[in-house]
Structure formats: structure tokens, C-alpha cells
Amino acid sequence: MSVLQLHSNSDKGDGSVKYILTGEGAGTIFIIDDTTGDIHSTKSLDREQKTHYVLHAQAIDRRTNKPLEPESEFIIKVQDINDNAPKFTDGPYIVTVPEMSDMGTSVLQVTATDADDPTYGNSARVVYSILQGQPYFSVDPKTGVIRTALHNMDREAREHYSVVIQAKDMAGQVGGLSGSTTVNITLTDVNDNPPRFPQKHYQLYVPESAQVGSAVGKIKANDADTGSNADMTYSIINGDGVGIFSISTDKETREGILSLKKPLNYEKKKSYTLNIEGANTHLDFRFSHLGPFKDATMLKIIVGDVDEPPLFSMPSYVMEVYENAKIGTIVGTVLAQDPDSANSLVRYFINYNAEDDRFFNIDANTGTIKTTKVLDREETPWYNITVAASEDDNPGLLSHVTVGIRVLDVNDNPPELAREYDIVVCENSKPGQVIHTISAVDKDDFANGPRFNFFLDEHLPMNPNFTLKDNEDNTASILTRRRRFSRTVQDVYYLPIMISDGGIPSLSSSSTLTIRVCACERDGRVRTCHAEAFLSSAGLSTGALIAILLCVVILLAIVVLFITLRRSKKEPLIISEEDVRENVVTYDDEGGGEEDTEAFDITALRNPSAAEELKYRRDIRPEVKLTPRHQTLSTLESIDVQEFITQRLAEADLDPSVPPYDSLQTYAYEGQRSEAGSISSLDSATTQSDQDYHYLGDWGPEFKKLAELYGEIESERTT
Fold it and tell me: Could you list the residue ranges that cross the membrane (predicted)?
């Protein structure tokens, strides 16, 4: 198809001018005759794909290929024609609208698009029309808005509608193109229908054996609405069975469930009447003029007669019996009767498991319960048994009742100590000091147990060491009778006691308390209760003991070596049993005690004047007779120690009988007697002192051992 022709002023028609075409579509969509300049299209053009093309043309000399004119640009525009029909890009549509909506209620707006040029002619001008769905719905021809066309469209009458909408271009004129879509419209439910019972009278049969709490029947009201608009509740509004029956609502099935609140008795009442109402729970006040949204019906209940099991006079029984009662003692009686008009005889029996101990039996005719064994309340204070009753003419019908039997207490258990007591008395205890508190227990009941009385056995001699005090609160205190105890003298004491209860008649028992003697701190805390604790009180560790042992071994080795060396020396020229030229007389006394003072006369070491008449040689056997110590002390008390030593030296130098070798003599002197008396312990063993050494315990842990030693001496003297 020819589009246009190009012509140059230089073209004289002799074919010397050549036309060249470049640009969009040149050579493919558009071709040019290089001699005449005619431009042709090779295929149809679609405006919806490309609206215009930009091309360049130039005339050149065919022989020299030189341009004769500057290059020219031109645009080819594609003119639109109506070749595209309107289209609904979002269809088909699904939409809902509430039922009973007003006429003209907007449902949905549909839109169709046309690919033609909207600026050229009416090719893209679309109008809407409804092809299907009248007279229920309408469509706006310009906007495409779909509206309801009728009043009070009822979902219960018709729920679904299919509406076909057409869109046509060319403003709907003849020859225009069109497209259509389907709109599926569903009416949604509103609560515009009240519930209705299918019948105004109902009848229900219920046997008198129906269990309380069980469902005995169902009833249902119909509602044309759906979902929450059909929800309802049921209630009993009046009738003579209001207190006997109750009704509830099943939310899934929307049924009323009738239940039994109290047991039925055909012999007392054979029928009941109930007025039942069903009402919607979710109301729409726009439609209240269609109400009321509730309905009522009458239900007659017929009670059926059945053969019932015996009925006990009480729902449960509680009986009492004393423990230790004789076998066959009557505990109590149960009573059951046939509730039917036949009034059959009733038989009784006890339900026992195979492994149960049978402590009771029951008279089958009278229902009297008796003991079959001797009962012990302390072993089992309560029994629960189940008594069954059946009719003579129908043994399969049973009824059961629980019987609780309380075993009453008698005073058959004496009191005893609450536990094994570990009682400790401190060595430094004082008279009347409480060293422990004890309590008692009784297996019997409270009335036959406390209050407890604690006392010592009157048939035994009085205990000189401990006594017992009843605190009158079911406890007793152990007190000391004397001052100070010693583990070395006696480490364990025994105290027999008696305990009686408050029962009638009263029972008593005897027990023996064991009391250990222990060393304690000043605050009463127990330090040790073992006699060997004296050795460990020094606080020596294992390492220290090993070191001491090694020192002793080394000293023994040195002594053995020294003796060996002495024996290896040359024997002296003069050997005599009385050879005392190197005799060293040494007195080493640390204030030991009476044993040391009896071994030898220590008077010479106390005072030189006491030895004035003992002028015998220390290196030869003396033959002089010793004078009594108290006489020499009274006559030679004033001799000075220096004068005494000088005198002894002169006697040794001038004595012709002394051998020609040195003789070493040692004298120890403590000085003149003090006015306050001697502080030495040498005479302490021979005197009886009443001094109290308790103050040593206040000097600290360094004097703890010394305080214990003097405490034991004082305790032994007291004993």
C-alpha cells in the first residue's frame, strides 16, 4: 500500500537522483522506490501496537553518491479504526448483598476497557447494559454500577442470582463491538424469621428409674435463618415440673436437652406438664415488626412405673463401738424398704472383697450389724463397709449404702517416752540445774492419754545424784542433786522413772534414763564425753607426735652410743664399790607430790639450817642418826646460806679422811621462809585446802586444763 512520495528539486526525471529511506521500520515495514521516491507499506499496521513511526529521507547523486539536499525527517501516524471490542478484565464476579435490602442498593461496579483510541471517534466509548438478571437487578449504562431493582428480596425464597452485563463501544450504536461478563450475586441472611415449634403439644415418656442428671428427652424449634441468626435458647417458663426437670441448649444442633433434676416416683406422681419456650439470641431491630422472635410449646411428661430396688432410710450411716468389745457386740441397724406398691421383703448383706478381713456381719432379715472380731482402735480407728439390700422376689435389684463405724477408745495402752533420750550432764554442773526435758506419748485417744504424770519410783532408795520434776505440761525436767561430776570416777548414771496417763483407770509404765558425764564449755556446750579425751586435750597433731617419737629414738641412740664408749675406756687402778670421786648428787624435783616426798628427805634442800646435824660425808656411807625435822628447824633457823657453804668447804679441805681427789657436792636453797608462806607445791599434798579454783576457768583457754584438774580434785574431795 502506497503511503507517500518523496521528490527533490534536483530531480529532473533522468534517473540521476537516488532516494534513500532510514528510520523506524525502514526496509521492513516501509520500502522506497529509489528512483521515483514512492514509499509503500509491506503489511497492515496496528495502532494499538505502535501509534507512529519516525523516518529519515535523503536524495543523493547516483553517480557520485553525494547528497543533493540535507536529510529530511518525517513522522507517519497510524490512524485508529474500531477493531477492538470492550473487555472485562476482572470477570467473572462473585458478590453478596444482604437480603431484604432496599431497592437501589449498590451491589457492585463493573468496568470494561477498550484498546481503541479514545480521542478519535467513538471507537472507545463504552456503554453498559444488562442481558440477564432482570427484574431483580439493574446496571447504570455509563458507570457500570449494579443495583437491586426490587424491594425486600428474601433469601429464604431465592438465594443465588446470575447476572450478565454487556459493554458495547461506539456508544452503543449499530456496528459497535461488545463484550460481556457474568456477576454471581448471593443474598446473605439476616434475622428476619422467628423460631417456630412444629407442634404446639408434645408428649414424653420417662421411667421412674431415670438417674438424676441424665438427659431424658430432646425438643427443637425450627428457624429459617442460618448461622448466628438461627441461634436460640430454650427455657421452662412454667408448669408443675419446673423443680423436677431442667432444659439446656445444644449449640451445635440447636436442640433443647431435657434433664432430670430430682428422682421420679411413680407411686407419688405419674405425670408432669412443662411449657417450653425457644427464643433467638441475636435480634435485628430493623425487623422487629416481623416478631416476636420466640415461640412456646407444651410438653407433657408421663412417668413410667418400674420395679425399683429397696430404698434405705438414710443416704449413709455412722455407728460407734468400743474397742476390745466382745465378739457379737451389736454396732447398729440399717433399714431399707421396697418403694413399690408390692412392698416385698428385703434381705441384707455386706459387700466384702475377697482379701478383706471380715470384722462385722449383718443379720439378713433385721439389718443388725455385729462384731466378728475384737477391735483395736490403735490399729484401725475407723471402718467403712457397704451394705446391700435386695428384694425377696427380685434379688437382681440391689441398692447400696455406706456405713461408717467409729471405734471408740478405752485406756488399754500405758504411756511411754516419746523417744530414746541422750541425756548429758556436765562435770561442772551445779545442784538443781536442769540438764534435760523429756516428754511422753500414749497410743490411746486424747481423753485416755494426756495429761501425763512423771515421778520417781517410791519403792527405790532416793537417788543422790539426780531428781525428776513434773512440769505439769506433759513434760518433765531432769535436775542434778549435787555439785560437780567426774568422768574418771563414773561416766554413766541410770535414773529409773515412772509415767502415768490421765485415763480412767490410769495406766503407768517405767523407764530408765541413761545419763552420760561429759566435759563442757562455760556456756554449757558439750566438748567431749570420752575418758581418753585428757590425752587429746593437749591438741597435738599426728605430725607433732611423730616428731616427738623421732626425738626419743635419737636420744636413745645417743645414750646407747655413750654407754658403749664408756665401756671401751680403760678400767681404773682402784676399783671399789665405794668409789665416789665423781659422784654427783642431784636432786631434780618439779613439785610432784606425796610420792616424791616419801622417797627421800627433802628438808635439806629447803633450808640449810635443817641439815646442821647431818654433817656426814656424801661420798661415804653415813653412820650418824638423823634428828627429827621439826626440831632442827626450830633451833637453827637463823643460819645464813653463805656461812653454811663456807663451813662445808672448810670441812672438806681440813678433813684428813677425804681421799686425794675432788668431791662435788650440790646444795639447793630457796631462801628464808616468807611471811605469806611458801608457794611451793611440795607441802600441798599434806594439807587440806578449801580454796575454790573456779576462777581458773575465767583465765582463758590456756588455763582450761589446769581448771579441769583442780575441778576433778575438788570433785573427789566432795565425793
Answer: 544-565
- 2 bridge partner residues: 40
Q: Please report the pLDDT score of residue 598 as a whole number.
A: 46
Judged by DSSP in three states, 591 sits in: coil
For 2-77, CATH number out of 2.60.40.60, 3.30.360.10, 3.40.630.10, 1.20.200.10 equals 2.60.40.60
Is pLDDT above 60 for 589?
no
- List the beta bridge partners of residue 518: 426
Element (H, E) at 548: helix 542-567
CATH number (2.60.40.60, 2.30.30.40, 1.10.1040.10, 3.30.1120.10) of 87-188 reads 2.60.40.60
Architecture of domain 311-408: Sandwich (2.60)
Coil, strand or helix at 43: coil
CA–CA distances in Å: residue 393 to residues 335, 396, 430, 489 = 18, 9, 86, 88
CATH code of the domain occupying 416-528: 2.60.40.60
Lowest mean pLDDT segment, chosen from 66-75, 321-330, 342-351, 664-673: 664-673
Residues 6 or more apart whose Cβ sits within 8 Å of residue 432? 479, 480, 481
Instruction: Please calculate the CA angle 322-323-324 and round it to the nearest 5 degrees.
Output: 120
The mean of the pLDDT values for the chain is 81
CA distance 648 to 660: 17
Domain with CATH 2.60.40.60 in the chain: 2-77, 87-188, 201-304, 311-408, 416-528
The three cell numbers locating residue 435: 540438764
Q: Where are the alpha helices (DSSP H) in 591-640?
A: 594-599, 603-606, 629-635
Give me the pLDDT at residue 114, please. 85
Give me the DSSP letters along 194-229: --B-S-SEEEEEEETTPPTT-EEEEE--B-SS-GGG
Burial class (CB in 10 A: 0-12, 13-18, 19+), 256: buried
Amino acid at 437: T
Categorize the per-residue pLDDT at 668 as very low, low, confident or very high, splitting at 50, 70 and 90.
Answer: low
List C-alpha distances in Å: 559 to 241, 553, 569, 583.
122, 10, 16, 19
Three cell numbers at 59? 536524495
DSSP state of 528: E
Amino acid 373: pLDDT: 92
Specify the pLDDT at position 123.
78
Per cent of the chain over pLDDT 70 is: 80
* Distance (Å, whole) CA 427 – CA 182: 115
Question: How far, rounded to the nearest angstrom, does the alpha carbon of residue 315 sit from its chain's CA centroid?
Answer: 40
Tell which residue, 522, 467, 518, 525, has the closest CA to residue 488.
518
Query: Which region among 86-95, 124-133, 387-396, 524-533 has the lowest average model confidence (pLDDT)?
Result: 524-533
Contacts with 638 (C-beta within 8 Å, 6 or more apart), sequence order: 609
CATH 2.60.40.60 describes domain 201-304: yes
Confidence (pLDDT) at 610: 45
CB 264 within 8 A of CB 244: yes
User: Does residue 705 or residue 675 have the better pLDDT?
Assistant: 705
Q: How far apart are CA 497 and CA 491, in angstroms?
A: 20
Taking the CA of residue 104 as centre, how many other CA atoms within 13 Å lie in the half-sphere pointing to its CB?
0
Nearest to 407 by CA among 371, 442, 441: 371
Cα–Cα dist 297/559, whole Å: 130
**For residue 719, pLDDT beyond 80:** no
C-alpha cell at 6: 518523496
Residues 204 and 300: beta-carbon distance below 8 Å: yes
Name the pTM for this structure.
0.42
Q: Sign of dihedral through CA atoms 336, 340, 341, 344?
A: negative
